[in-house]
Amino acid sequence: MLWLLIPLLSVLIIMQATQLPRSIVHSAITEYRFFVREPTYPKCLSIRETVGLVITWLVLSIIPLTFDQPLLWKAMTLVVTAALLTGAMIDYRTGLLPFRVSGVVGISALLYISINAPFEMTTHLITALGVATILCLINGLSRRLWQITPLGGGDIALLAALGLCFSLTEIAAIIWIASITGLVESRVKRRSMIRFGPHLALATLCCWHLKVIL
Q1: CB under 8 Å to 125, separation ≥6 — which residues?
Q2: What distance, in Å, lies between the first and last C-alpha atoms of the chain?
Q3: What distance in Å separates the CA atoms of residue 98 and residue 35, rounded to the nearest whole number?
Q4: Which of 7, 12, 63, 109 has the fewest CB atoms within 10 Å, i.e. is most exposed?
Q5: Domain residue ranges of the chain, discontinuous segments joined by +
């Protein structure tokens, strides 16, 4: 059944690729408007932010050590937590979620699945491809109908990378949790645009640990 999805996904990718030139131009315009609104753009994280990031990672690292789980799971948790926290901090300060963060998460997930459950590798690869395709199509449809882009490229890349270690249902749960917390932030701060990366990081860590607890 899964192999039947490959031709469909391939067609959807080709159809989406035809809109890439327009998407690139729209992304450039959107980012330019973002930079115009920002009074300053930090070139790097301050020492205080870096120290806070490290301390937060050390505190959160205590959680996986308390679970009776294999060493591989604990190592994966430490790496993913560090990557997500770094991406969340950068996105919060700049509004841009680096693709390197998604790369680290994706590579770590591939290594984890290849060792822990190699028979599920194909399923997770198709899930990651499907997540990226669906989200790109949603972005394209929203841009065409309402002239807005719900998710940035970094958000889509991160969710696609997460598809390598989460099921489609879990990815939907991550998006739902992040949307709820993002909505709360937008109401509290009275802003129509928020940084979605921190909310994705929080939702991902919650789902990752709940998989073990439940």
Answers
A1: 164
A2: 29
A3: 16
A4: 7
A5: 45-213
Tokens, residue 153: 């490229």
pLDDT tens for residues 59-103?
888 888 888 888 888 888 888 999 999 888 888 887 778 888 888
Longest Cα–Cα distance in the chain: 52
Coil, strand or helix at 164: coil
Q: Taking a C-beta distance cutoff of 8 angstroms, is the pair 156, 134 a contact?
A: no
Amino acid code (one letter) for 205: L
Q: Using an 8 Å Cβ cutoff, are 141 and 163 in contact? A: no
pTM: 0.78
- How distant, in Å, are the alpha carbons of 55, 74, 145 from that of 70? 24, 7, 48
| CB 151 within 8 Å of CB 196 | yes
Residue pair 96/154 in contact (Cβ under 8 Å)? The answer is yes
The single-letter code of the amino acid at 104 is V
**Residue 199 and residue 140 in contact, taking contact as beta carbons nearer than 8 Å:** no
**What is the pLDDT of the chain when averaged over all its residues?**
79
> Nearest-CA neighbor of 135 among 213, 66, 196?
196
